Amino acid sequence: MDFNEISILDVFELSELYVTIFNGPPWNDQWTMMTAVERMKQLIHSEGFYGFICSVDTVPCGFILGQKESLYNETHFQIKEMGILGMEQNRDIGFQMMAELERVLKEGGVHKMYLLTDKINDIVNFYTNNGFKEWDSMMLLGKNIV
């Protein structure tokens, strides 16, 4: 298994992987290559961006994308996107990807990582099995404006 840091040169390969993963179950989104490329470019160009593509036998099968955030007393990392091809799920690839991310972040002085995700049992179970827990001190609020 290989982990290759993402650069702007990877945007089309990454976007293809993104569309394949998130247009399938359990999300069943409706991404196009155009909208995925736009999303990937936004993330890659954001301040503090870090991400990698995971490959098995040189075939890309997953990715993690996120952003470092500096606070007054520590640095956090928000996982913005994580995905693994359906046929590669339940093979410990996700656990290995999370371990690699944690290793890199720890070396980079990051203190905490967090994410927002859909309340789908398999997804929530994956993250809790990787040591994530709900933060009682935080709440997600939203407001529709259109």
From TrEMBL:
SUPFAM superfamilies: Acyl-CoA N-acyltransferases (Nat) (SSF55729). It comes from the Bacteria. InterPro entries: Acyl_CoA_acyltransferase, GNAT_dom. GO terms for molecular function: acyltransferase activity, transferring groups other than amino-acyl groups. CDD domains: NAT_SF. Residues 1-146 form the N-acetyltransferase domain. Pfam families: Acetyltransf_1 (PF00583). This is GNAT family N-acetyltransferase.
